[in-house]
Amino acid sequence: MRLVFVTQAIDAGDPNLAATVDKVRALAQRVDELVVICDRVLAHDLPANVSFRTFGAPTRLQRGARYVRALAPLLLSGSRPDAIFAHMCPIYLVLAAPLAKPLGVPLVLWYTHWDNDWTLRVATPLSSVALSVDRRSFPLPSEKVHGIGHGIDLSRFTPRASTPPAGNGPVRLLALGRTEPWKGLGTLLRGFELAVSRGLEGSLELRGPSVNDGERRHRAELLETIRSSDLLRGRATLEEPVDRSRVPELIRGADALVSPTIGRTTGGALDKVVYEASGCAVPVIACNPVLEEFLGDLPLRLQFRGGDAEDLAETLVAFSRSDRATREEVGRELRRRVEGAHSVESWADRVLAAVRAARRS
Prior knowledge:
Oligomer: single chain
Number of helices: 11
CATH architecture of the largest domain: 3-Layer(aba) Sandwich
CATH topology of the largest domain: Rossmann fold
Number of strands: 14
Strand order of the largest sheet: 5-3-1-6-7-8-9
Helix content: 25-40%
Number of domains: 2
Distance between the termini: 17 Å
CATH superfamily of the largest domain: Glycogen Phosphorylase B
């Protein structure tokens, strides 16, 4: 099988985009040839059957033109690709459609985000199939949407080697991700502050990039919230992102990962870090209702109502009072759930199954 994979960048060092390398690698292990078309290629360890075409340019119009010029020869050659896979950016599928559809080359969209802008609304009906973590993590209703899991590299995201010491010491809470205003980090700080006022002993580490002016402004607001609170100062920190290779170690150093994110449309934002932490057998405390099944039926309550600092505080206090053996049990079960439905191997298998089905239809 020959597959074209279109994405923003190949860069194992990028805190936002590095996980794409894991997905490309898993697909490459299952196909004869994989051609990546992207803006730029930096650090990676991809196998020899992966080749690259780049479309980096100063303006959006120039990038679009260069992308089409990179794609066209692949479609017009004697060995056409079996499918074009557009990763997270629907515009890649929209631009490919006039070339691919007359030739009968399937167009596969991968998208998991709350934003349903015009490019998604155009790309979805043009696609042969639309893939997401879950049907509910795709923000448009469509019969073309299939949930296939998140694609976590479980050889990287592994449990800690040694069991933490017995007893209930201060809890170490971690939140990872960009400082986007809708991510709920303000709620997280308020909930943690309330929990501390009610006896929680521990720390909260927020860590992630701020990639645009809005995120930088929100970062400054979060820092001011920490500085102005006697209960947060010295207990809560907001740090820069770490290299992707250090993320598993960072997660394993926490007692729980907290995800206050929920999507702003009908499509829930299923943060990848929820499944990465679960792969490390670290309990996850989250508010997204789409995670109800994944985080349910466990001996600890791991969910709180989105935007509700009071409910979050109750959840954090209860978690801090749980014994380590129970936390370990919960972590092991979450690891098993990721193994069953969210590994990068199962993700790649389901992508290729979708490609084969699209080619038959």
